[in-house]
Amino acid sequence: QERPQAQSFPESTGRSAELQPPLSKPGASVSSADPADGAMPAAPPQVRIFIHHTAGPGNALPAIQLAAYLETHGFAVTDIRQVDVPIERPSVRYFSGGDRRESRRLVDAIGAFYAKAPGRAPHEAADFSQLVPKPRRGSIEVWLPAPGADASHST
Questions:
Q1: Which helix H or strand E contains 125, and what residues bound it?
Q2: pLDDT tens figures, 20-40
Q3: Considering 6, 37, 122, 142, which has the largest number of Cβ atoms within 10 A of its Cβ?
């Protein structure tokens, strides 16, 4: 069975976050962590957001709108993916304890986006750090249920 094409952003492979290989950027340098040479330790990897929505007519638009909002608020949305299972409630999932703070910031940003429809936003981030195998550090997932007639976000 052929899988529907996901809405892709730069650096996307179209695979689930669990299967994402590490991505390297040409020309990226890593600072030395040796304090003797005066360099600062490398910054933690940038958080990459994957937005999932239930497949179906009209379900992609809220995910696209949320992605655009998050991008303008400093988040790197890597991919928007449709899934063939119903998503019952909104959620944010992180897979590394080091991503907890950014996950909470993401929950707050989604809450602001859905301020007029608070039932569409997750209330907290879910800790999936015990998942094996886990995606690379910096991967955070957003799961959006299909919009209801009374719960859609208006711009």
A1: strand 125-127
A2: 333 333 333 333 333 344 444
A3: 142
